Amino acid sequence: MVLLTVSGSLDSLRPPACKERPCVEANGGQNAFLLCALGLIALGTGGIKPCVSSFGADQYDEADEKEAIQKYVFFNWFFFAINMGAIFGITVLVYIQEQKGWSVGFGIPTAFTICSIIIVAAGFPYYRYQKPIGSPLTRFVQVIVSSVRNHLEGVEVEHEDDLYEVTTKESDIFGAPVITDPETVRKDRWRLCTLTQVEELKSFIRILPIWASTLDLAISFAQLSTFFLSQAAVMDRNLGSNFTIPTGCVPIFSAINALILVPIYEKVIVPILRKLTGQTRGLTSLQRMGVGLFVSILALALSALVERMRRQDHPKPFSMSVFWLFPQFFLMDSAEVFTYVGQLEFFYNEATDGTRSISTAIFLSEIGLGSCLSNALVKIIERATGGQEEGWLRNDLNMSKLDYFYWILAGINGLNFFVYFWVAWRYKGRRFTILSGHCSIREKIFHGMRISLENFKDSKSI
């Protein structure tokens, strides 16, 4: 952010203001400086996003029933806070950038970022920390390499009694099963891994189908910042006689909806659903994601109908009010509220202690992959229908058939919904059955107790 602020402040790092056409293009050095700044932002964001939600949830003790419930509430309010920041960014900052320039527009979020770092650092003595146990990717590769080596060498465990619960530093997770024969315990994990590492990898692989079956929704979310804004640009954005809503501020519909829907869901909908379903949170994480996927289908279908009406009934540009887009923004953001928070809950809860950050990271990777897949789909449709000049998605939106594109997305989401339903129905969560009920992997510390890994079909009692 500092580099972006500098780039927007120094004349030598930006092209001159465009007063006459054609505009002066930025030179190689200016582009390189800008790309370097954007690259650092991407790198920093990639480090923050997967960790901040997991770290926040780690502040709640799962062994405490009250705090365990508060953890789920945290995910809702975490999403609420994100949208509060979004409203500030797409209203106040957009206005400041237009009125005061890029230097001030970038300088303000830079100052806020510095303040946030100071606030977070002030809480270091009071946070709850999980003990670092190394990179999960390294442990995954160790399992694969050691399993291939052992398979090729014909290594087998002769007795199941060699595996039991221990609470030593040998285990990657407190209470993990390991081989205890001193002749077989090695420091080289590339040849022999703990059973916990194996189950950790299996648990991670098990959530990948859920991740893949929700990836299509990210393509739909990409339309919020692309074609939804293109529609707004050719509609009447006047608010009274003296104010025109900037196109970049139109996504405020989505952010405001989130600020309204999250408290309503938490305070009104959850208590009602709790009585109907018997679930503490009203809906399970998988059910919540399913609701979001279904609502996204409705959002895209409505988007197609609104676009068809805009193009046919209002052929003159800027004759249809931008507020006609509010329902599709409302439905799409409602889908995001259900799905995004449901994914946060699911990928956090179904991951082991050592894989929660990477589980959250693959969920957030949907945002980037969704944008790439959306762009690829647009290119395919452009080529298949005649290009940007004659196809469905022309440069002139009034001559395009954007509603056809929305119908295709709605159809894809509809098919994906059934795929997700099948995957979610077959999914078995990360739970362990004991004599008195259920416990999480963190609670599996009772040496000698009969515990069944029921989420694996080939599991055995240990």
From TrEMBL:
GO annotation, cellular component aspect: membrane
Alphabetized Gene3D superfamilies for the sequence: MFS general substrate transporter like domains
Main location: membrane
Ranges annotated as spanning the membrane: 73-96, 102-127, 243-265, 285-306, 318-341, 404-425
Localization: Membrane
Record keywords, A-Z: Membrane, Transmembrane, Transmembrane helix, Transport
Protein's membrane topology: Multi-pass membrane protein
Family: Belongs to the major facilitator superfamily. Proton-dependent oligopeptide transporter (POT/PTR) (TC 2.A.17) family.
Protein name: Major facilitator superfamily (MFS) profile domain-containing protein
